Amino acid sequence: MKKRSMMFLGIVLMLMVILSACGSSEETSGDTATNKEEEEKKTLRVVTDAAYAPMEYQDKGNVVGFDIDFVKAVAEEAGYELEIEHVGWDPIFVEIESKRADLAVSSITINDDRKQTYDFSVPYFQSTNKILVPDGSDIKSAEDLKGKKVAVQNGTTGQAAMDALLGKNHEDIKKFDDNNLAIMEMESGGAAAVVADNVVVEEYAKNNADKNLTVIEDETFDSEFYGLLFPKGSELVEEFNTALNAVIDNGKYEEIYQEWFGSEPNIDILKEQQ
Length: 274
Ligand code: ARG
Hints:
The protein is of the alpha/beta class.
């Protein structure tokens, strides 16, 4: 009797092993199916200038920032994988114009000049230029920049604002490939101020309290909006606009914004622009 029940137990155990093996093989094939789906997701090449914290910058070899989380959320919504590469500011425009990259995210202001050569998504972020100076500087407004050396990143709206204020190619405008180099120029005494996007100079002053820097607002600087940049005629624009709006409407945008800025975004102002 004992022997027989042992045998029975043995058979039951064997059956369980066989069944669980079947189960797991089914699971494996299930996994392969989802892997396949993921593989089929098209990978897009995204270029950026990751020297513009907190929007896009490098941290331990990774490109991170608000823009990066944002573009990833939008791509996920649209069903794409991304390969994000730091190429620098001027190369972004070369990569996009030549269609070597599918899109760029880099705090890029939407303006008429750029619209002639590129396509943009709908606006996703409001910005304006601000002036970064050492504490105690006699510069209190844009007007006070006249007669002073001003460092800007080459080819940005900060440079355009200085061209408009001081005159195009004025010798007092010191242009740098990367915004961090413009800030270093001011810190080493080669320029009296830096003009760049508000979130970037504000973050820099806040994170470098020991450097005693002040950020000055001037209402003569335009209100600007960032957009994702695409090659002219790209079919991705519409898909990304739909996904971008979905990310705004489903709360994901706000979540990412809160994570990076600790405050609520003004969604209405973005929607008004569409
Ligand atoms: N918003 C400005 C522009 O479009 C500056 C952007 C600079 N971005 C960067 N990642 N360096 O001209």
